[in-house]
Design goal:
Elements lengths: L1 E6 L3 H12 L1 H8 L3 E7 L13 E2 L3 H4 L6 E4 L5 H12 L3 E4 L2 H15 L4 E2 L10 H8 L5 E7 L2 H13 L3 H10 L8 H4 L2 H15 L9 E2 L7 H9 L2 E12 L2 E12 L11 E8 L3 E8 L3 H17 L18 E2 L6 E11 L4 H11 L4 E8 L4 E8 L2 E2 H12 L9 E5 L1
Helix pairs in contact: 1-12, 2-12, 4-5, 5-10, 7-8
The protein binds L-homoserine.
């Protein structure tokens, strides 16, 4: 029998215990051994939970119990979870976690400490989609050319509802929180940080690259307005928050931001709380992974899969997918050298000479316009809509600063990258 301790019995922890109970028969057959929860650690013992497992409010009842083989860390947060997980590993326990923030900062240290102990984290990226397994095992014969994914259910739910139903930002964020999709602090979702944490984990498996959130471009969906969503729709685009990793020669670019993406692309059709990730390998070509990225049962499905895997196998896998360092290390492309096409919406006073002055600034910054349209906004103002040819990030940023300073420009220009 394998005994499990769960640290943090909230939505996901409760689902883990329920799945281990409800599907005990098939789980035991697949693992070749029975798996039981010996103890769940909670902060508040008097709170009602829909599961009958022994509970404790003392973390050492799990960490210091020699009978517990696998510690499931579902407490969230970074530094406290790091201490707990280190202690579990030092007590020679295998660890399963869904904690992407912990991994975004400490995955290489944890790999070092874990050594031959199993350390699994399938649920940390895209909830129920087995993307870690796919990338680390299924695609291990490939150089990964790119990863492009919708990896935050909350943002995708919000973007979909704003587009389909014209619902405003705050109402829909509250709805996503009530449905249990959002992080405790939803800034992690809407600010792009949750997606960035997930992207960094995937980038380690794909490229062996050790980047931290502060090393990469991270923008959220806070500036995406109803106006931009409807312009995008009119021109055949959807707006999605994407995590993007791309390899070009010896450089890897990593970025998270809202994107205009053609409605014909498969990833543009991924709606609601669902997640979708496209991975292109040099030998396999494009592969696509789709499924629920948030919610108790979906996330717990991945956690329990890791528990089964550890219970059935004697040997752990290299945590981040590399058994020895990659020769000829790849380097991270500086943010301001990233290249893209851009959508720009500039709200201006509708006066003579405005357009000429703006296009002069485009030219001065090396930016070439691909399409341009003017739409009246009020009786005295208009929205100028541009899409550009491929341009360099630092040129676009300089250009936006110059345009914003013009007296006939009414607000900070809106910029969304096009993929
Ligand atoms: N807040 C996350 C999301 C949960 O909305 O996708 C899963 O990581």
């Amino acid at each position: 029998m394998i005994k499990v301790g769960i640290i943090g019995v909230g939505t996901v922890g409760t689902s883990v215990a329920q799945i281990l109970r409800d599907n005990a028969n098939i789980i035991s057959a697949r693992a070749g051994v029975d798996i039981v929860v010996k103890c769940g650690v909670v902060k508040n013992l008097s709170k009602h939970r829909d599961i009958e497992i022994p509970l404790s409010d003392n973390i050492n009842d799990v960490l210091e119990d020699d009978e517990i083989d696998i510690v499931v860390e579902l407490m969230g947060g970074v530094e406290e979870a790091f201490e707990v997980v280190k202690k579990a590993l030092r007590s020679k326990k295998a660890v399963v976690t869904a904690n992407k923030a912990l991994l975004a900062y400490h995955r290489y240290e944890l790999q070092e400490i874990a050594q031959d102990l199993a350390f699994e984290y399938e649920a940390s990226v895209a909830g129920g989609i087995p993307i870690i397994n796919a990338l680390r095992d299924g695609l291990s014969a490939n150089h990964i050319k790119s990863i492009m994914g919708i990896m935050n259910g909350t943002c995708n739910y919000m973007m979909t509802k704003m587009s389909d139903e014209g619902v405003d930002y705050d109402t829909i964020l509250k709805e996503a929180q009530d449905l249990g999709y959002a992080e405790a602090d939803p800034t992690f979702d809407v600010g792009g940080f949750d997606t960035a944490h997930k992207l960094l984990i995937l980038a380690s498996i794909a490229y062996g690259i050790d980047a931290k959130p502060e090393d990469i471009l991270i923008e959220g969906i806070q500036n995406v307005s109803q106006e931009d969503i409807s312009f995008a729709k009119e021109f055949g685009y959807a707006i999605k928050l994407l995590g993007i990793a791309k390899k070009d020669a010896e450089e890897v670019e990593l970025r998270v931001h809202a994107c205009l993406i053609s409605q014909d692309e498969m990833i543009a059709k991924i709606d609601g709380v669902m997640n979708g990730i496209s991975v292109v390998g040099d030998k396999v070509g494009e592969t696509l992974y789709y499924g629920p990225g948030a919610g108790g049962n979906a996330t717990a499905s991945a956690v329990v899969a890791n528990i089964i895997d550890i219970a059935r196998s004697g040997k752990s896998k290299p945590m981040l997918g590399f058994d020895k360092p990659l020769e000829g290390k790849l380097i991270l492309k500086p943010t301001d050298e990233i290249e893209s096409k851009y959508y720009l919406r500039i709200n201006v006073s509708d006066k003579k000479g405005v357009l000429a002055k703006i296009t002069k600034i485009f030219e001065g910054n090396n930016i070439s316009v691909e399409t341009m349209l003017q739409r009246p906004a009020t009786s005295h103002s208009a929205n100028l809509l541009f899409s550009t040819h491929i341009a360099v990030e630092k040129d676009i940023q300089n250009m936006i600063k110059e345009i914003e300073a013009l007296d006939f420009v009414n607000s900070k220009p809106v910029m969304i990258r096009i993929v």
